[in-house]
C-alpha cells in the first residue's frame, strides 16, 4: 500500500500539467483556464496567445516570448520567468508570487490588481508597466528599469528598489519608505502629493 501511495504521489508530480492542454495551446494558440503547472514551456513563441485564467504554477517559461499574450487571472506562482518577454501582455489580476523573473521584459505590461509576493524581478525591464492596485510584498526590483511605470495605490515599503531606474515613474496614493522617496526624487520620478513617505 505504501509503495502504491508513493507511486501515485510521484506520478502526480511528474504529470502535474495536462498534455492535451499544451497540445491545444500550440495548435490553436488559445487555451483558457488550462493546466500548465510544472510544464517545460521554455524558449517558446507564445506571443498573442490567449491563456486567461490558466495555471502556470512552477512552470518553466524561461526565454519564452509572451508578447501581447492574454494572461489575466493566471497563476504563475513559483514559475521560472527568467528572460521571459511579457511586453504589452495582460497580466491583470494574475498571481506572480515567488517567481524568478530576473531579466524579464514587462515593458508596457498590464499588472493591475496582480499579486507580487516574494518575487524576484531584479534586472527586469518594466518601462510603462502598470502596477496599479497590485498587492506588492517583499518584491525585488533592484537594478530594474521602471521608467514611466505606474505605481498607484501600492505599498512598496518592504520591497527592494535599490538601483532601479525610476525616471518619470509615477507614484500616486502609494506608501514608500523615506529612503525610497528620496531616491525616487533623485531619479526624477513623478511623486504625487498623495504619496506617503514613511519614516524608517
Describe this entry's structure for a reader.
By secondary structure, the chain is an alpha/beta fold. It has helices at residues 2-14, 19-28, 178-186, and strands at residues 115-117, 135-137, 150-152, 170-172, 175-177, 190-191, 196-198. Helices cover 16% and strands 10% of the residues. The strands form three sheets. It has a three-stranded parallel β-sheet with strand order 3-4-6, with helices on one face.
In short:
The chain has 200 residues and is of the alpha/beta class. It has three helices and seven strands; from the N terminus they run ααβββββαββ.
Describe this protein with a few key phrases.
3-stranded parallel beta sheet; alpha/beta; two-stranded parallel sheet; 200 residues; 16% helix
Report the portion of residues in β strands: 5-15%
The computed structural class is alpha/beta
What can be said about the biggest beta sheet?
3 strands, parallel
Mean pLDDT: 93
Distance between the termini: 56 Å
Rg of Cα set: 18 Å
Strand order of the largest sheet: 3-4-6
Shape: elongated
Q: What is the number of E strands?
A: 7
Tally of helical segments: 3
- What is the H/E order? HHEEEEEHEE
Low-confidence stretches: 1-14
Helix content: 10-25%
Could you give the topology of this structure?
Blueprint: H1 2-14, H2 19-28, E1 115-117, E2 135-137, E3 150-152, E4 170-172, E5 175-177, H3 178-186, E6 190-191, E7 196-198
Parallel strand pairs: 1-2, 3-4, 4-6, 5-7
Amino acid at each position: 500500500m505504501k509503495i502504491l501511495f508513493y507511486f501515485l504521489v510521484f506520478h502526480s508530480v511528474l504529470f502535474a500539467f495536462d498534455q492535451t492542454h499544451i497540445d491545444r495551446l500550440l495548435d490553436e494558440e488559445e487555451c483558457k483556464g488550462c493546466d500548465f503547472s510544472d510544464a517545460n514551456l521554455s524558449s517558446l513563441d507564445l506571443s498573442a496567445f490567449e491563456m486567461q485564467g490558466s495555471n502556470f504554477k512552477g512552470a518553466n517559461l524561461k526565454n519564452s516570448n509572451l508578447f501581447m499574450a492574454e494572461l489575466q487571472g493566471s497563476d504563475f506562482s513559483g514559475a521560472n520567468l527568467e528572460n521571459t518577454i511579457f511586453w504589452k501582455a495582460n497580466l491583470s489580476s494574475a498571481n506572480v508570487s515567488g517567481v524568478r523573473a530576473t531579466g524579464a521584459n514587462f515593458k508596457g505590461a498590464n499588472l493591475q490588481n496582480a499579486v507580487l509576493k516574494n518575487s524576484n524581478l531584479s534586472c527586469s525591464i518594466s518601462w510603462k508597466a502598470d502596477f496599479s492596485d497590485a498587492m506588492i510584498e517583499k518584491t525585488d526590483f533592484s537594478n530594474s528599469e521602471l521608467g514611466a511605470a505606474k505605481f498607484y495605490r501600492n505599498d512598496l515599503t518592504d520591497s527592494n528598489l535599490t538601483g532601479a531606474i525610476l525616471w518619470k515613474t509615477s507614484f500616486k496614493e502609494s506608501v514608500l519608505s523615506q529612503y525610497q522617496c528620496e531616491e525616487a526624487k533623485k531619479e526624477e520620478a513623478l511623486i504625487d502629493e498623495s504619496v506617503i513617505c514613511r519614516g524608517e
